[in-house]
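Q: What residues go here?
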């Protein structure tokens, strides 16, 4: 229990109120969550590149590194991204100073299918999110966007799969959100560990 107390002492007060791990983990994993309120504070080029660098060092099958990151940071670039977000997500993500579309090449260098492209890109996104948190930034991955429109707007090949748009920036005041979103602006919980861990085979 002393290890768990140490974890909670290092977690933010906001996280302590909503997240209680069953076993001690590094506070980084608890402190990372997905806010929707973003401030207008810009993200430095150094910090943006550090976040992308961390993502780029994720593990990948055969070191194929299938992930691709389309970055929008200027007003012109962001307007293109805003256009292919669904309306609900545009309502809050349009305030984020950086948007990153995570895609992956479904083919290996020799043209064979890469069955691990999505799995590897998920690892890259996880690394991106954790590095962002270490820099005091927040992220929120968005699945609600029009993929065909994004593909056309960004000239993305048909052999690349589009996974998510990631909002990146500094956390803002939840009062800037629509009223219906304010109550949801808090760290969520997790299922009990024994619901997701299967020892040996599944008993049916």
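A:
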């Amino acid at each position: 229990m002393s290890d768990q107390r140490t974890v909670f002492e290092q977690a933010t007060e906001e996280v302590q109120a909503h997240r209680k791990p069953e076993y001690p983990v590094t506070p980084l994993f608890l402190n990372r969550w997905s806010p929707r309120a973003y401030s207008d504070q810009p993200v430095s080029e150094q910090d943006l590149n550090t976040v992308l660098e961390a993502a780029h060092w994720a593990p990948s099958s055969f070191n194929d590194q299938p992930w691709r990151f389309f970055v929008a940071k200027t007003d012109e670039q962001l307007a293109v991204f805003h256009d292919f977000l669904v309306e609900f997500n545009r309502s809050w993500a349009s305030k984020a100073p950086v948007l990153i579309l995570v895609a992956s090449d479904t083919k290996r260098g020799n043209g064979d299918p890469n069955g691990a492209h999505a799995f590897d890109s998920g690892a890259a996104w996880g690394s991106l999110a954790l590095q962002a948190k270490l820099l005091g930034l927040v992220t929120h991955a968005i699945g609600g966007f029009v993929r065909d429109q994004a593909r056309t707007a960004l000239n993305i090949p048909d052999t690349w799969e589009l996974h998510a748009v990631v909002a990146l920036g500094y956390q803002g005041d939840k009062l800037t959100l629509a009223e219906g979103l304010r109550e949801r602006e808090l760290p969520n919980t997790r299922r009990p560990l024994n619901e997701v861990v299967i020892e040996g085979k599944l008993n049916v």
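A: Context that may help when evaluating the design: The chain has two domains: 1-31, 34-186. The two ends are 34 Å apart (CA to CA).
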